[in-house]
Amino acid sequence: MTDTDVVRPDLMTCCRAFAGLAVGVVRPRRPDEHFLASLSDQDLPAPRTTVEVIALPQRERMVPTPAIAEGVWRPARSANLINAFVVRHPRATFLVDPGVCVDVIGRAVAEVPWILRVAVKPRRDTIDIGQALALADLDVASIDFALPTHLHWDHVAGLLDLPGLPVYLHRPEYMWMMADRLAPQGGVRPALRDRPTTLYDLDGPPVLTFSRSLDLFGDRSVLLVDLPGHTPASIGILAQTSTGPTLLAGDAVWGRVQIDRLRQKATYPGMLADAERDAAWETLHRLHAIRHRITIVPSHDRFTAGQ
Ligand SMILES: [Zn+2]
User: How far out from the chain centre does Cα 160 lie?
Assistant: First the structure.
């Protein structure tokens, strides 16, 4: 397949997604108490330095809360954003989830199958990554590299406007993106082409409830942890800030309400967006178990750490 072929979910998958939405509204998936009890909470090693996490400006889009979390009705609608973050470490400044490009609807969203597009299409006045950096008074030249939590269009399309910026990618996520039929849609492969790329593995020890990690700078200030499910090799960035540890959790969950109430994403659009629903469900339990120990920031929820 080429970079621009559009692959649509089959009819049966679409029917199951809508049927599951109806069921989930009244009968959400029950938490797995056995799995929750089996989780061991490892130490979070003390960092030798701290980093700064800056949320770039975005525009809210109001979406029905029952489409974010099964069986949650209040509030009826919730704010949805496309967040990008800058992390400042003494040795490097990097971009977590480089947001969206100029004309993202034409250049990226148009490739997404309509059944998913109607649920995820951003506002026309969505702030592109260049604007977002400028509004935050950040110079593009000050960014050393990009580090996506996973390879979906709304997390990497901004790279189309940042040619040559080096990117760090989780090796199995990269392999999946190159091989899968649905994953590359929305300008993902073009965004990653022709730029310095470093592939990494999470070959470090368990941290908190996560099974693997990578100490990015060797000083325990930024730990990458595994959050599989939404995509097969999604990661989170656990940043040690002056106000405590903050986990940038990507799309492992879409809203904080999922973590607090242990509710999976609604089947529509969640079933079409998550690559492995059962793995995503386990990851949600891992997040729920540590929700009082660290600040967890889903990419599409409002950034609250330090504010
Ligand atoms: Zn995603």
Answer: 18
For the stretch 259-297, pLDDT in tens is: 999 999 988 777 778 889 999 999 999 999 999 999 999
CA angle 104, 67, 3 (to 5 degrees): 35
Ligand 1: distance of its center to the CA of 197 in Å? 20
Cα 139 to averaged position of ligand 1 atoms, centre (Å): 26
- Give distance in angstroms: CA of 166 to centre of ligand 1: 21
pTM for this one?
A: 0.90
Q: How far is the CA of 153 from the centre of ligand 1 (A)?
A: 8
| CATH class in words for 11-297 | alpha beta
